[in-house]
Design goal:
Number of strands: 10
Order of helices and strands: EHEHHHHEHEEHHEEEEHHEH
Number of helices: 11
Helix content: 25-40%
Radius of gyration: 19 Å
Distance between the termini: 14 Å
Shape: globular
Length: 297
């Protein structure tokens, strides 16, 4: 059966998506259109590029996440200068190595721009801080920035979506005005864009399956303990990430979402071990296997 898939953000926890993809394949489900935010956008781009699950597994298995940590050269010689870059460049790492890695692997499938993909088969979510907008690439490029969507690099779009605030330096997009927009992680405004394929005027062509790297909605909505300013900052950031999506999920069918419980692993923990990666993959597969036994209902 053909389905559309939506993948949430989650940083390094995205290894769990590999397990979910294996289960989806095992259950004879074929992904057609795909969408994602941040780490979910990375996985979605490889699916859209026609990578098999085994190829994605091998690709991520060979990856050393620490290779993506590319601070400006000055930071290597003057460690405290990273705070200078954090203040003025809005991030510690450039993110160029991540974008280059994406470009290389997409190029192996002859995917360079959105023109190389089937129309509408990949949607990437980013956040425009300058305009205060949630942006869907490639759909919104022409309307908001007057950029031709067909010739926008897929690797650049995914890198922007994975631009975790303060960790990676944000990318910039020229727009209709002289000022460029600051673009960061799509998860800031929609970490789980399950809404992106919904057809409000008629029935969807295919079932939509969401894969979310978190506990169920009920557990997400438990009250947070806020004892100091740092707790408040984390709560604010978490609220911004979850508020939009939680409201949508509460209105939609919860039985279209695979929830993968991976809360004990940090989003930007680029030091995770090979054992942890295997645990994530196994967790993703178990959660998907359990869910797909009775799906679709």
């Amino acid at each position: 059966m053909k389905i559309d898939g939506v993948f949430s953000g989650g940083g390094v926890k995205a290894y769990a998506f590999v397990g979910a993809l294996k289960s989806i394949e095992k259950n004879t489900l074929q992904l057609e259109r795909v969408a994602g935010t941040s780490a979910g956008a990375i996985v979605a781009s490889f699916v859209a590029a026609d990578y098999s699950t085994d190829e994605i597994d091998e690709m991520l298995g060979e990856l050393d996440l620490k290779d993506f940590l590319d601070p400006p050269w000055l930071s290597k010689w003057i460690p405290f200068s990273k705070w200078f870059f954090l203040y003025f460049q809005l991030g510690i790492y450039k993110g160029d190595k991540l974008e280059h890695w994406l470009y290389q692997h997409l190029a192996k499938k002859n995917i360079y721009t959105f023109h190389d993909l089937q129309p509408g088969y990949l949607k990437v979510i980013v956040s425009d801080l300058s305009l205060g907008k949630l942006v869907v690439i490639p759909d919104d490029l022409k309307r908001i920035y007057n950029i031709e969507p067909n010739y926008f690099p897929v690797s650049k779009a995914v890198r922007m979506s994975a631009g975790f605030p303060y960790f990676f330096m944000p990318k910039k997009l020229p727009g209709r005005s002289k000022k460029k927009s600051i673009i960061v992680d799509g998860g800031l405004l929609s970490n789980f864009p399950l809404w992106v394929f919904e057809n409000k005027t008629k029935r969807n062509d295919r079932p939509i399956l969401g894969v979310k790297l978190s506990e169920t909605v009920e557990k997400q909505n438990q009250p947070r303990k806020i004892k100091n300013a740092f707790d408040m900052f984390l709560a604010l950031f978490s609220t911004m990430k979850q508020a939009h999506d939680t409201r949508y999920i509460s209105k939609s069918y919860n039985n279209h979402i695979i929830f993968i419980p991976v809360e004990d692993i940090g989003t930007t923990d680029f030091q995770i071990t090979e054992e942890t990666k295997e645990v994530l993959i196994e967790t993703g597969m178990k959660a998907a296997d359990q869910f797909l036994k009775g799906w679709p209902k």
